[in-house]
Each structure stands twice: as structure tokens, then as C-alpha cells.
Amino acid sequence: MEVVLEAVGLVKRFGSFKALDGASISLRGGEVKALAGPNGSGKTTLLKCLNLLLRPDAGSIYLEGSEVTAPGVDARLVRQRVALVFQEGYLFSHMTARENVLFGPLKVRRLPRAEAEALAAEALEAVGLDRSLWGLYPAQLSGGQRQRVAIARALAMEPAVILYDEPTSNLDPLGAEEVAAAIVELAKRGVTSLVVTHDAALIAELGAEVCLMSRGRVALCGRLEELPALAEAAGDGELARFARALAGRLGKARVVPVAAR
Ligand SMILES: Nc1ncnc2c1ncn2[C@@H]1O[C@H](COP(=O)(O)OP(=O)(O)OP(=O)(O)O)[C@@H](O)[C@H]1O
Ligand SMILES: [Mg+2]
Q1: Residues near 96 by beta carbon (within 8 Å), at least 6 away in sequence
Q2: Which residue, among 198, 123, 129, has the nearest Cα to 154 in the 3D structure?
């Protein structure tokens, strides 16, 4: 598959501090990658740069073969192609679930109403939100349901890539499971995705390669189980400790059968 999104050597400064210090990553069509790393290593900053919510100070981003960091590129169009789903979802509180999802196709993409409605319904179905909930307002929905609406809203824009920033971390275990199932379902359907997460169960279900960020760079990528050894081999003791803790969560997350207790 062709590379859909590629970042090369991104640098992002906040004052004299470099939040990104030569970060590079790429995603092929239909590929799903997880991105993890210690707090403050630059994961959110990288996602925000990838959809031009933040302008990198140096480096290049290519979307479907064109450089979007080139002068004169309309950032709004890039944001329509590279969807970003935040931890908190950020739905419009005065709109129902369905209206939230309909907004982009109808008002931003200006599609004919029937086409927009079909896209919205398809997206809400894809994330597994029961039809009985489509007319409810965000305040009437659970956290997991709200997050799935946020994912449907991104999906209805038919983006080239969906970037998720810790989509399950604010949720209770049930909500996290619902949202993880929705992300896995979209991944199976071939939606190119980059998922920032420390949810080992989600990483395992996605069967995704994991990239680890450290101090503003994407330091290494591999299977969850092989990350500790890769980080050791790279001579980064701190990242190796992080990788062991992350990989170790997978075992701990498994539920012990009642009879075995
Ligand atoms: N707008 C900003 N102004 C100043 N510093 C910032 C800004 N945004 C991020 N930073 C700094 O950049 C670094 C990277 O932040 P970022 O949010 O990308 O990390 P992260 O890997 O997503 O962390 P976390 O796991 O806590 O979400 C941090 O040290 C943070 O304090
Ligand atoms: Mg973050």
C-alpha cells in the first residue's frame, strides 16, 4: 500500500523548549499504528502537527503524496483529510448525537442533505452506537457513547487518516471496551489510523505495531512484546523501563478465570 501520511524530521518549539526534536513517522493506506511514550514525550504535539492544528517549526509532512507543510497550503482542507479525535471528544453540547455527526458532511463539506444523512448514519452504525441513542444530547450519553459519537463525527468526513489521542483513557472499563471495539472495527474496515494510547489491551486487539516516542522523537517501532528488547538494544534505559511497564500491562489486564482464583 502507498504511504498516506508521512512526517519527516518535525521540530516544534515552545519558547526555547523543543517538544518535537526531529520526529518522523509514516502510515501506509489501511495501516494501524499505536504510539506510546512517557508523559511529555511529544505525542499530542505530534498529532496536532500532523493535522496542522500546530505548525511545525521545521520538517515536512506529506499527505497522499503532496507536501502540506509547503507555503500556501490551506490548513482547513488538511484538517478535513486528517481527523483528530481528542481524549475528551469535544462534541457540540446543543446538538444531538446525530446532528453532531451530520454537521461536518452537511456544513463543512456541503454535501446534499440525503448524502450527508446517509454518511452520518453509516458512521454511527460503524461505531456501534444503538439507533435509540442517535437523538440524545451529549449530556444524556455515557462517556463511551460520547467518545463513539466523536469517532463517528470524524469518520463521516471520510478522512484519509484518523488520529486518536488516548481515546480510552478517560473512560470506565466498560466505556473503554466499547470505544476500543469501535476503533478495532474501523481498523478492520481499513481506516488508516494512528492511535496514541497506553491501553495494552487495545494495542493487542488492534494487532498494531507500536512506536515509542522519547524526548520529541519517534525512537523505535515494533511489536508490543519486543519493545523492551528494542529499547535496550538502542541503549535507552529509561525507554526500556517504560517499554517493560507497557508490555507488562498486557499480562496484568487479562482476567483470571473464577475457578483458578
Ligand atoms: N502549548 C504549549 N506551550 C508550552 N509547552 C507545551 C505546549 N504544549 C505542549 N508543551 C510541552 O511540550 C511537551 C510535550 O507535550 P505533549 O502534550 O505533546 O506530550 P505528550 O507525550 O502528549 O504527554 P502526555 O502523555 O502527558 O499526554 C511537554 O513538556 C509539554 O509541557
Ligand atoms: Mg498527550
Answers
A1: 134, 135, 136, 137
A2: 123
Q: pLDDT tens-digit profile of 237-246?
A: 999 999 999 9
The pLDDT assigned to 195 comes to 97
Cα 216 to ligand 1 centroid, rounded to whole Å: 10
- Does residue 256 carry a pLDDT above 90? no
Among the atoms of ligand 1, which is closest to the Cα of residue 198?
25
Ligand 1 within 6 A of CB of 41: yes
Asked whether 237 lines ligand 1 (CB < 6 A), one says no
Q: How far apart are CA 7 and CA 78, in angstroms?
A: 14
Work out which ligand 1 atom sits closest to the CA atom of 38.
25
CATH numbers and ranges of domains, the chain: 3-47+55-253 (3.40.50.300)
pTM tops 0.70: yes
